[in-house]
TrEMBL record, chains A, B:
Residues 601-701 form the Glycosyl-hydrolase 97 C-terminal oligomerisation domain. The keyword Ubl conjugation does not apply. InterPro entries: Aldolase_TIM, GH, GH-type_carb-bd, GH97_C, GH97_catalytic, GH97_N, Glycosyl_hydrolase_97. Residues 314-505 form the Glycosyl-hydrolase 97 catalytic domain. GO terms for molecular function: carbohydrate binding; hydrolase activity. Keywords: Calcium, Hydrolase, Signal. The keyword NAD does not apply. This is Glycoside hydrolase family 97 protein. Its cofactor is Ca(2+). Monomer. It comes from Pedobacter frigidisoli. Residues 1-19 form the signal peptide. Residues 35-296 form the Glycosyl-hydrolase 97 N-terminal domain.
């Protein structure tokens, strides 16, 4: 049982009089451990900042500012009115997470600027410096000369010191489902990727020299730098334009149908712009800066929010064995009203019960069913009314399924694919959530495949950012946990809305069916990029690694089976899918045991070792238990991982059940080769794990009941 | 009491074998009384049609067709597969209207065409010929080669025979609130008007040679031709591009944010394109063709739908005496949360009770209150969340007002101004209508001032057309009558949704405050243009005709007081406002008597005489009563109108109370000059009415209780 910990909270607030503040003079500097920061106004009165790490520069002097409508350029002629500061050191407990409690320790500097021109404009910039980086945001106070306005451009720059090695995907306004690649900044060229979103490259990736955040870079001097944003609310997502000659990055906001970026009203503040910096890659993965920059939970009663594992009537459609849609004869339906079943519809009552039986028998708590509701025949058409969110196909008995799941102690997970038609979904949302409540669906997966309606809006623009948050809030009102597919990249909002469990917003396991797949290094990059802002529903746990897709024998997972297990640890999510079909698990029940056992909520996490594009090893302690789990993955290279088990309790003996690649395992030719063994270990033990090319290892540490030292 | 009439309905359906149909040959011709029609395929296989009236050509041979996406051009290479025909003669009873029953008598020809190319495409065109014109629409049957598609252009043409005198307003995508002007077709130039909608002329009126429908024309040979559309559903509004050298008109559809016109799925049909034609102007006004082309009521129980007159807490804000908004200090609200009242807020409980008292005492059934709900301070800003549709300002007690109105037998009319943010309204609609039901609001005025959200969409595009219909349906679900301001132009949908009582969609009386006003001829053109598709909430009944607006003494009504009364008859609406404030009515209670007495629902209507831009005289018989009302208006010219009273029952004596312009009345210098007298008349009498420049006359005929002939 989970022993409830007392909440530890300390809060130190102090206004520090910086030297020279009474003279309102710049520059102003702050330091937290290795991270140093300076704010200045340059000769043109442009606000600039700079970040250092130890003796090295991390971000060179970089400008801050905006272009607004009404002819307002907030780019120069600023003066410092005053500056004030505060130091905060508090500890808070997330509702769920990688650790039981999080320290939020920062120094804050607020510079109050005025731009003098025809009309004076007030602009505050708030900087928070942490031991692992800097967060800052713009705040527009209430003022006479600036009320409602349009953001035409945000000018924020992040000037790099050199041609860093960069892990990037192109700046598509509507998709993040690209393979990560690494290259020097100077070699970034978004158009070398085929377009993934629906539309045109010109319309969706107009800037071929721009990339998505979180952007992971490694400098020649060994510094790791990660740029992203926190608390993205009522504002478009930030992309980064790359100047390939100067290595300057600059904010590029996703536009709306009219080419505008954001519609604002003072008082207003932007999301936080974040720069995580360290000389250790592991610090990037353990940083809690983005969570700390988000507001505390707005949901008071969180007792209904519970991490879980789930299966899905999903992969069988994904690989083409069955279908989401009920009929293949839409002309018959449109013409004569005849609903001719295709006989391949997966979400039928009988099949769903089969999944419920398997999940129930094997202790998997949740079951997602896709394709249960009307609309799957023509949902990628360019129309607005795509889905009915409460009307099942004729062969899916909502009541019977719901009752059966309840009797079998399995939690049904609702699926609302919108096909990108957010307007249609918003109109039906009240009805859809009442339906979920009526039939006991406590979780929801939404989806936004295809072009957005309102037409001309983008997945990552201000309108859709607000839409996703509306869906999260509406879900919270109905005590429903939410997992959003195809939204923009997360920015730590799961602190504020802890029912926002996970999202996709990246290239998941499914691409191993769609395409030539995700190369083995993909999963070693995702935690440094996509996962920086929040959990990803990556859908791990595919056991049938080859020959899963009828008619396309060349498609295969770029992974060994053992690596599929390791992903449950290395790809953090409080909702973890066991993505394969029951039959494929039945063939490997010894390995499936790890999926059954692995926790989804944690008291502690140790990033044992990590290098983006190469390897990641993480150990996590299960919530409220003296049990640890470890996952280690590698890229396409074979690797020996040596893990000191010093995270285990001293003076205790543990059993370690090791799920490892077999001797001859290799992702392409022999992925199913794995071995399982159980040994006794202590905190002094050192584990050597051999990871095959594209392989991994998963370990389950349990306290031995009667330890005899 | 209204004696319920038995429903007279006769329906004759017969398939007529046209000569030559078995050979699938064209041309095909039909004739109804004076109206003749021919369909043909020209040498290129392009469908063409032609309309004649008597011996004159009304519409020269004109093409039909489309440009779709997927590279499909439906402009030529068509062949006739078959043609079939039917004759219909039925009579139906509107829930409310200008007459008690309507004859729907037409011959229908359906041509089934196939375009042979790489992929053969099926297209049907349905023509209905009436005694007063032609309606036709395109129907896309279910077919293998055309499923979902985008309409890029509709090619429908209406080729005129000459440089007709035309009554037109410019083809703004977002507004119809222009002064009508008349000019030859060759002189149409939309840009001579200042832009009225928010946006730019380039964005909102890109085609300076285009005009809105209904378009009223008069040919040199005396033919009156009116072009519009009927049953506009799931399609953008049609504008007409004018070729000023050939006098050819062609369909120009309002685009969406992406420049597309409509998103469709077969089976699908367009709205009806309508051409009303006659050698008598009065026939244009009495035509029921557009209503007949709409579907019968989809609302089964219509007992809750009741025409009425209403007053409004409105004009006092409109003229600037009081305000919609509660505070003038938004910076205080945004900054400190302090809600400082401006002391000018009209929709306060006390003031509303004052209106309720007046309405109750004087038998005006309804009361509209604008500005009662939060959001009026910054509602024209370019933001999405503008209004809260259920939260009143602090000085408006919804419950108290609702109870007071009920006790005084006055029906409260809800007001939901959206500021154009349809997305925000759609999200709140469920809540807003539940609120109306809770507080007993049976009617609703909505509004769409300012730019549309979804951004990039237009008031008259497919998305908004669908939105208006969603609002009508939602209102019907909640038994609420609806009056929509700033929608697209109506197309007779009030037959199908009889809770859709009225709309604005034109330049109402209010412009006499906003601007240099509506010239005296404006109201003589509106019935030939804006009102062709449905009732207009024109807001007549202003009694204080000058000096109503503080600080702008030059503003005045372009009307005498007597003309304001006449508008209750000449501007048909089942919702008629008494738009002035109680104090201004109190100064002329003798004239106000007409507004109290005038009916809003009718058993019969006679268009006595009419000429667009010059004069209109209409007599109407009150629903279920032996009472007639007559309205006569003129333009800026003085005029003597001679009316034979042969519409009255023979062998009966009536009293006629005549509200006429005074001897020296003139709209500019002496508008308040009126005279009221009561005389006895019979069906043999002839009334001579002197209409002042900008003047009019209103007459109330009542059966004398004890007639002694």
């Amino acid at each position: 049982m989970f022993k409830k910990q007392s909440i530890f909270l300390s809060l130190i607030l102090s206004v520090i009089a910086f030297k020279g503040f009474s003279q309102q003079s710049v520059p102003l500097s702050l330091k937290m451990k290795n991270v140093g920061f300076t704010f200045n106004l340059n000769a043109q009165g442009t606000p600039v900042y700079q970040i250092s790490y130890g003796k090295n520069e991390a971000v060179k002097s970089s400008v801050l500012g905006f272009k607004l409508d009404q002819g307002i350029s907030l780019a120069e002629n600023f003066k410092l009115l005053k500056a004030d500061s505060v130091t905060v050191d508090e500890t808070w407990k997330p509702v769920w997470g990688e650790v039981a409690q999080i320290r939020n320790h920062y120094k804050q500097l607020t510079v109050h600027l005025v731009q003098q021109g025809q009309k004076s404009i007030l602009l505050d910039i708030v900087f928070r410096i942490f031991e692992d980086g800097l967060g800052f945001r713009y705040e527009f106070p209430v003022q006479e000369n600036l009320k409602s306005f349009v953001v035409k451009e945000e000018l924020t720059a992040f000037n790099m010191t050199g041609d860093h090695k960069t892990f990037w995907i192109p700046a598509d306004f509507d998709s993040n489902e690209y393979k990560y690649t690494s290259s020097p900044l100077s070699a970034i060229d978004a158009r070398k990727w085929g377009l993934i979103s629906s539309g045109t490259i010109e319309g969706n990736i107009p800037d071929q020299s721009a990339v998505q955040t979180p952007l992971m870079m490694k400098a020649a001097n060994g510094l790791y730098i990660n740029i992203h944003e926190a608390a993205l609310i009522d504002y478009p997502s930030m992309q980064l334009h790359v100047d390939k000659s100067t290595f300057g990055l600059s904010s590029s906001l996703v536009p709306d149908a009219r080419g505008n970026k954001a519609y604002m009203r003072t008082p207003f503040h932007t999301p936080w712009r974040t720069v995580i910096v360290s000389d250790k890659a592991t610090d990037i993965l353990s940083s809690k800066m983005i969570l700390n920059l988000n507001e505390p939970s707005k949901i008071e009663n969180t007792s209904w929010i519970k991490p879980m594992k789930f299966m899905g009537v999903w992969w069988e459609m994904q690989v083409g064995r069955t279908s989401w849609n009920y009929t293949d004869q839409m002309e018959t339906l449109h013409g004569e009203g005849k609903y001719v079943p295709n006989g391949r519809h997966a979400a039928n009552t009988e099949n769903v019960k089969h999944y419920i039986d398997f999940a129930s028998k094997n202790g998997i708590e949740g079951l997602l069913v896709e394709g249960w509701n009307k609309g799957w025949e023509e949902w990628t058409d360019d129309k607005e009314e795509k889905f009915d969110f409460v009307t099942p196909y004729p062969d899916f008995d909502v009541k019977a399924v719901s009752d059966y799941a309840k009797a079998k102690n399995v939690k049904m997970i609702m699926h609302n694919e919108t096909g990108g038609s957010a307007t249609s979904y918003e109109r039906q949302m009240d009805t859809a959530f009442r339906f979920m409540n009526r039939y006991g669906y406590g979780s929801l997966k939404t989806g936004y495949v295809s072009g957005i309606v309102p037409r001309g809006e983008h997945h990552d623009g201000q309108w859709m950012v607000n839409h996703y948050i509306r869906s999260i809030k509406k879900a919270a009102d109905h005590h429903v946990m939410i997992d959003i597919h195809e939204p923009t990249r997360p920015t730590g909002l799961h602190r504020t809305y802890p029912n926002f469990m996970a999202s996709e917003a990246g290239r998941g396991n499914e691409w191993n069916f769609f395409s030539d797949g995700n190369p083995p290094e993909h999963e070693t990059i995702l935690p440094f990029t996509r996962l920086i802002g929040g959990p990803m529903d990556y859908t791990p746990g595919i056991f049938k690694l080859r020959d899963y897709a009828p008619g396309v024998p060349e498609r295969q997972m770029h992974s060994t089976l053992a690596k599929q297990l390791a992903l449950y640890i290395t790809m953090y999510s409080p909702l973890q899918m066991a993505a394969d079909i029951p039959e494929n698990y039945s063939a490997h029940m010894d390995a499936f045991r790890f999926i059954q056992d692995v926790a989804v909520d944690w008291d502690d996490t140790r990033i044992v070792e990590a290098e983006p594009g190469e390897y990641i090893t993480i150990a996590r302690k299960a919530k409220g238990k003296n049990e640890w789990f470890l996952g280690a993955i590698t890229n396409g290279e074979k690797r020996e991982t040596v893990v000191k088990l010093d995270f285990l309790d001293k003076n205790q003996i543990y059993t370690a059940t090791i799920y490892a690649d077999g001797k001859d395992a290799e992702w392409k030719t022999n992925p199913e080769n794995y071995q399982i063994k159980t040994i006794k270990v202590t905190a002094k033990s050192v584990l050597k794990l051999m990871l095959a090319p594209g392989g991994g290892a998963a370990v389950h540490f349990r306290l031995l009941t009667n330890p005899k030292l």
